Each structure stands twice: as structure tokens, then as C-alpha cells.
Amino acid sequence: MKIVSSLSELRTARLSLKGTVGLVPTMGYLHEGHLSLIRQAKVDCEHVIVTIFVNPTQFGPNEDFSNYPRDIEHDLKLINPLGVDLVWNPAPEIMYPPGYQTWVEVEALTRPLEGALRPGHFRGVTTVVAKLFNATQPDKAYFGQKDAQQAAVIRQMTRDLNFPIEIVVCPTVREADGLALSSRNKYLEGDDRKAATILFRALSAAKDIYEAGERNAEKLRRKMKEVLESEPRAQMQYVSCADYDTLEELAVINGKALLSMAVFFGKTRLIDNFVIG
Ligand code: AMP
Predict the structure, then answer these.
(1) Confidence at residue 25, expressed as pLDDT on a 0 to 100 scale
(2) Among 268, 264, 203, 191, which residue's Cα sits nearest to residue 234?
């Protein structure tokens, strides 16, 4: 496993990889969710590149960029047994040198949900992912369903900019009690860790009434709200029942839909989602 940081080292190492290449972009502090993407890339591709970069441009001014957990040594230990060819861990000034001024923006898909509450977030995500795609030239790139809107936005960008890359979206990996794995779970203190299972329970309750025949989207949103409100430690930011493709809020569910939510536990913000239909 080769570990590189500069762009020239990356290019040299990339040139030596013959055959199909799978890219797994991450912000590090790896967990089983990230490893599941790497394992899938290993199954599908002859070579795998993992990038570890905490991208400053996708964090808002009041978000947790400086506090985002980092542990590159531990990350490399986790990746080591998986048969990854190349790890790229660029410094911020490699991605954004002084005078940097080029941005990639996806329009309608980034307006609702996370985009509405985190202005500029997806502009940072699509810009960095486009740069990672250009630098690593993969055949396939792997993303998690955990960040459903991010996966949709990247699929759109890939299509719009004619990147010859297949976007593969892998299922959300969860703890035994349903909590979706996230690097930010580390910040759930004391009782908040147990309380955080409320996201999974709220999504499950809405899915249950959908499976029992309910098609009124507002009733599903109300059900998720009701369950979240039963947990005093949870501060709901939004719940949504949206069209799977456009991410616009639905009145009636008559196809594939995305149930999603963002919830604070103290300063820790968690998101989760289920696909129904
Ligand atoms: P991050 O390091 O948080 O930017 O995540 C890197 C990639 O891992 C993204 O495509 C995420 O959607 C994916 N990911 C994060 N958590 C999970 C999870 N619990 N299950 C599956 N994929 C995940």
C-alpha cells in the first residue's frame, strides 16, 4: 500500500496502476461504513485508491471543521489489511493553493434538505470530489447511502460534467442498535449515545406505517417528528419525506421516496435516512 501526499507523487503512482480503478473518497477517522465501501471497490475493481482529506470548503463558518476527528495513523492501520493500492492524503494547500477561485455547483438538487441548512456545503463537496476525480481518474467511485443527498448530487455532477466514472452507492452500515456509523458519533457523550438510536426508531416507525398502507407523506413526517419528540435529548432540525429523484417534499407517495432527518444531540449533528417504495 503506497501512501502519498503531493500531486506529483499521486500522478506517478496512478500511472503505474493498469486496469480498472475504484476510488473511495473519505474525510478519515474511518469506521466500518468506510471499510464497506473499500471492500466493495476491491470486489469490483483491479485497483483501489482511498483518499483521506478533511475538506475545509464543505464546512460552514459555525461548523466543526477544526474539531472534526482526525487520526491518520489509525486510519492507515484499518486500511492496511484490505488490499488498497494507494492512499492519497493531500494537505489543504495542495487542494486549495493561494489564489484558488474555481468552484463546481449543482443547482436544484442542492437546494432542499442539507443544502437548505448548510449553505455552501455541497459547493464544497462537488468541488473537492471533481478535483479528486480529475487527480485519480477512477473507473468507479464509491459513496455511502448514509449521505443520500450527497450521493444524488455527485451522481448529477458526474452526469452533467461527463466524467466517465460509474457512481456506486453502498448501503448504510449500522451499529447493532440501529445507529448509523459516523465519524461524528465519537462526540456523543454519555446518555446521548443511547438516545441517538431515536433516528433509527423514528425512520422505522414511518416505514412501518408506509408498509401498512399509508401514502400521505405528511403523516410519515408527523410520525417521525412524534417519535423524535419522545426523546428529550434530541433536538430535531428537520424531517423529510421527499421524492427520491428530485428530493422535493411529497404530498402523496406513489413511487420511490427518501425519508430523512437531521437531529442535534448537544452540539453533535446526526443525519440518517431510509429509502421506501
Ligand atoms: P466521510 O468520511 O464522512 O466524508 O464519508 C466518506 C464516505 O463514507 C461517504 O461516501 C459516506 O457516505 C460514506 N459513509 C459514511 N458513513 C457510512 C455508513 N455508516 N455506511 C455506509 N457508508 C458510510
Answers:
(1) 99
(2) 264
